[in-house]
Specification:
By secondary structure, this protein is mainly α. It is built from seven helices and no strands.
Length: about 240
């Protein structure tokens, strides 16, 4: 211990602890020294166990020091949990255990100011962590609410876009239907247009034009008869006598 070889000293104190009963000695003394060595080595978890063993000593003074140092080890372990591993809940629980150990040390030695001072420091640290934890929870809740609102806004926007798309599709279909109707209405008129592009009704034909159309029909019918004669090899009577 004097050479600051704390990790090497700890197993030696453990050996002394195991041999103490055979020598009629209190093993809690070696357990307490082992806890100090482990604490100085930064092995707080093992130090807590050693100080817990030392608390069983019939020496009330040793008990008081074991509780006090166990509280210190719990505080350091809690700091490591929060600062290195971000385990806020575990850190707060460790501080609560440390506060209980300090209270026990104060009850065993009311005149000792050290446990009272460390108790106040540990309690302040606990309150600080609890405030930080509450802020983190509030921030997480606020972030979740913002995310939910963002998702809801996006959902409404998607629905609005879909409605506009459906309305546009219906409008396009209606426009296409109207266009087809207009084309169908224009087709008969276009078929009756003259070569000059002007509409001309059959009832407005002049007698001369009607005669010319009649002659053309006769010639067409005669041509059809001639084709049939060639096809059948014999003449066929005309259906009509023009």
């Amino acid at each position: 211990m004097k050479e600051n070889a704390f990790a090497e000293a700890a197993p030696l104190f453990e050996q002394a602890q195991s041999q103490a009963p055979d020598e009629g000695l209190d093993p809690a003394v070696a357990a307490y020294d082992k806890g100090n060595a482990l604490y100085r080595a930064g092995l707080y978890d093992q130090a807590i166990s050693a100080f817990t063993e030392a608390q069983s000593s019939p020496d009330l003074g040793l008990q008081q020091r074991a509780y006090f140092n166990r509280g210190n080890a719990l505080v350091e372990q809690s700091k490591a949990l929060v600062e290195e591993q971000q385990q806020m809940d575990a850190g707060i629980q460790g501080l609560e255990a440390a506060l209980a150990a300090y209270e026990r040390a104060m009850s065993l030695s009311p005149g000792d100011k050290a446990p009272k001072i460390n108790y106040e420091l540990a309690d302040q640290l606990k309150q600080q962590w609890q405030e930080m934890q509450q802020q983190q929870q509030d921030q997480q809740q606020q972030d979740q609410q913002q995310q939910n609102q963002k998702n809801e806004d996006q959902k409404e926007q998607d629905q609005s876009d879909q409605q506009q798309q459906d309305q546009q599709q219906q409008q396009d279909q209606q426009d296409q239907s109207n266009q087809q109707k207009e084309q169908q209405q224009q087709s008969p008129q276009q078929q009756q247009q003259s070569p000059s592009g002007e509409l001309q009704r059959p009832e407005e034909m002049t007698p001369e034009e009607a005669m010319m159309l009649l002659d053309a029909l006769k010639e067409e019918e005669q041509a059809d008869r001639d084709k049939m004669r060639l096809l059948l090899g014999r003449p066929m009577p005309a259906d009509k006598d023009w």
